[in-house]
Amino acid sequence: MADTIFGRIIRREIPARVVHEDELCLAFHDVAPQAPVHVLVIPKRPIVSLADVTSDDSPLLGHLVTVASTLARTLGLADGFRLVVNCGRDGGQSVDHLHVHLLGGRRLGWPPG
Ligand code: AMP
Q: pTM for this one?
C-alpha cells in the first residue's frame, strides 16, 4: 500500500497527540475533532481499510476495539461513546490506513449523514 499521513505519524515524522501506544497500535487525538473527545486508534501494520481484512486480522481488530473501549474509560466517557470505521469512498474514508474513530463527550446524532 502507499504510505499515508498515519504511517508518518507512526514513524514520528510528524507530530500527533498520542494517548496510547503498544506493539500493535497507536492512538492519538484527531486533528479536526468532531466531538469533545475524538481519538483515532490505528494498527501499526498498514492495512488500507476494513474491506481488506481477513480472518487472520481478527485478533488485531479485537485489540483495536478493546483499546478504544479502555481509552473511552480513561478519557472520561462514562455517559457513552461511539466507534466509527469509515470504509472506502461511500463510507467517507479519507486516509487509506485503517482507523477506528472514538467519539464522545456530547450527545451524538443518529443516523449519520
Ligand atoms: P476518515 O475520514 O475516516 O478517513 O478519517 C480520517 C481522519 O484523520 C479525519 O478525522 C482527519 O481529521 C484525521 N486526520 C488527518 N490528518 C491527521 C493528522 N495529521 N493528525 C490527526 N488526525 C488527522
A: 0.98
Residue tagged active-site, from 20, 97, 99, 101 = 99
Angstrom distance (rounded) from CA 40 to CA 103: 9
Q: What does the DSSP 8-state code read for residue 107?
A: P
**What atom of ligand 1 comes closest to residue 30's alpha carbon?**
22
Domains of the chain, earliest start first: 5-104 (3.30.428.10)
Closest CA to 104 of 78, 85, 86: 78
* DSSP assignments along 43-88, one per residue: ESS----GGG--GGGHHHHHHHHHHHHHHHHHTT-TT-EEEE---H
CA-85 nearest atom, ligand 1? 3
Q: What is the pLDDT of residues 53-81, one digit of tens each?
A: 999 999 999 999 999 999 999 999 999 99
